[in-house]
Amino acid sequence: MRALLRVPRRSLVDVASCLLPVWLALIVTHTAADADLWGHIRFGADSIAGRTLAAFDHYSFTADTPWINHEWLSEVLLAGVYGAGGAVGLNLLKLGVLGAIVFMTWRAGRLAGGSRFSLVALSSLVVFASYSRTQVLRPQLFSVLFFAVLLTLLAIRERRGWNDRKTKAASVAIPVLFCIWANAHGGWLVGMATLAVWVGWDFVERRTLRSFAEGTALTAASLAATLVNPYGLGQWTFLHQTVGLSRDVSDWVPFLELQPGMIAFELILPLVALAALLVTRQWPRPRDVVVIAVLAFGTFRVSRIDAFLQIATGLLLAPAIVDGLGRLERRLRASPRLNTPSFAHGVAIVAIVTATAAVALPRLNRIYIEGPWTPDPEAVRFLQAQAPNSRLLTWFDWGEYAIWHLSPAGIRVSMDGRRETVYSDRVLDGHWAFYKNDPDAGTYPDAIGADRIWLPRRLPVVSVLRERGWQVAFESDVSIVLSRDSGQPYLPAPAEFQPYFPGP
Question: Which of 122, 226, 239, 328 has its CA 20 to 30 A from that of 180?
Answer without folding.
Answer: 122
